[in-house]
Each structure stands twice: as structure tokens, then as C-alpha cells.
Amino acid sequence: FYHPVLMKLRGIPPLQTFAPLKSILPCDFHLLNLRSIQSQQQDPHSPSPYTAMILHRLALDCGFEAQNLGFNCTTTQGQLSVSGLFKNLDLQLLQPMSLTLMHAGTPLANDSTISLDPMEISAFKLKLR
């Protein structure tokens, strides 16, 4: 139903691109998922102001760039500032969550820098405005 060829034949306009990040992430970070969290209100179809962000820090060996193999890797040693990550959106809540998003940790300051160890996966609840 949503294949681009079928959409064109049926006259359905193409979906717009959504690119919320200001810049690319450091090469050792991978954004696994960025999605809305279902509303806890009585109407499950009402929009939620919260977003789930799941990050994975890879275990890259950046020594390869010295050999000029075309792999240019710059890392932040596992540090990431979430407040400056999104364009045109202000961070109002930064809360660590379990990977299932069922258990919440203590909210962090909005300007906090999160830290992930190599091969660590972490989930966060965000409120962006």
C-alpha cells in the first residue's frame, strides 16, 4: 500500500522527511529508536508529549584512521549532550528508563551529559517542545 510506485500511481503525495537531529552523532553512537511513547491518559489514541530514545554505543577502535583506510572516526569517549542534539526542539525532560520503558530512573538535569560504556544500550524518556 505504501510502496512509492503505488503511491505515485494512486496520486498519494510522498511522505515528508523527518530529520530532528542538528548534526550527526559521534561515530561510536547509534540511535536505535526514536519514537513517541503511548499516552497514559484515558484515551490511548491521544498524543503523548513524551519520546523514547534508545542509544547504543559501539566499541570502535579508532586506531584505524592512522592507517588511512578511509575510516574517519571521531568519538566523544562515550559522552553525549542530549540538550543540543535536536534542532528546533527544547529538551524539557531527560529521564533514564529500562529498555522496556516500563521502569523509570531519576530524571537528570536537562543540560546533563549522558555517558555510555562501549557496547552499552540505554533508553531515555524525553519531553521535547
TrEMBL record:
InterPro entries: Gal_mutarotase_sf_dom (IPR011013). GO terms for molecular function: carbohydrate binding; catalytic activity. It comes from the Eukaryota. One of its GO terms (biological process) is carbohydrate metabolic process. This is Alpha-mannosidase 2x-like. It comes from Seriola lalandi dorsalis.
